[in-house]
């Protein structure tokens, strides 16, 4: 019986069909998905902070409206993804507690500070751009609810990337001071953006099993290369450079060669040693505590409703 179920699961995955919430799935598959989707959801929610920091100081009404819409989108992405974990039997309250207590991770990119308004543009261009590279293949991931959430999320991410690039184009047409701000911001975000694809394949412990289950569709190094190839012509059109002396076109490979990010820094930030790790979690904890009355009111309302129905 158990063998039948496992066989059916394997066949579904091999046939590029989707595993749905009520289908049997191996425990490891369920656990891996909950961990990955939760980490993704946390990243969307924590990712609201670095840019949210600039909403009240946006230089025009137009920029403010765009930034507000973008940051709100990220909240929506978090909600779709937390809902996807619930279809696997996870409890959202529990996931939030794990995030606040540092027992679950989020993308280390959000532990870097946003120092100027150019960072809003560079985050849209490079950080949302890297997120798109990571997320487009996830639209074909084997778990149905996750794949469907990603389709919607990717559409919004492409708006995020474009608004960032358009903002940078505008700044590059401005004063020398503005162009310097853009270049300084690119210098600070380039390496952390490359780290968003995770450690090199040789050190990535989960990749092989995730690829076999078709949760993951490309390896970290493949995606990183794709991102570099995609970003170079965009940097040239913009008139900025990336802070990597090894970055150059390789005729033979038909791709760009590039240097290696500082993986010691990566692990240090992942382990909590980034500039903003503490601040991000403290802010999330406060928002969660401040919102407790909303959750209590919702539960009280639901109970009242159930009582009324029971009486009827
Ligand atoms: Fe997002
Ligand atoms: Fe985004």
TrEMBL record:
Tell me the domain of life.
Bacteria
UniProt-recorded Gene Ontology molecular function terms: phenylacetyl-CoA 1,2-epoxidase activity
Question: Could you say which enzyme class this protein belongs to?
Answer: oxidoreductase
Q: Which residues cross the membrane?
A: none
Instruction: Supply one GO BP term.
Output: phenylacetate catabolic process
Which residues are the signal sequence here? none
Q: Name one GO cellular component term.
A: cytosol
Q: Mind telling me which InterPro entries this protein's record contains? A: Aromatic_CoA_ox/epox (IPR052703), Ferritin-like (IPR012347), Ferritin-like_SF (IPR009078), PaaA (IPR011881), PaaA_PaaC (IPR007814)
- UniProtKB keywords: Oxidoreductase
What does the record give as EC number? 1.14.13.149
NCBIfam families the UniProt entry points to: PA_CoA_Oxy1 (TIGR02156)
PANTHER family to which the protein is assigned, alphabetical: 1,2-PHENYLACETYL-COA EPOXIDASE, SUBUNIT A, PHENYLACETIC ACID DEGRADATION PROTEIN PAA
Q: Report what the protein is called.
A: 1,2-phenylacetyl-CoA epoxidase subunit A
Organism of this sequence: Lentzea alba
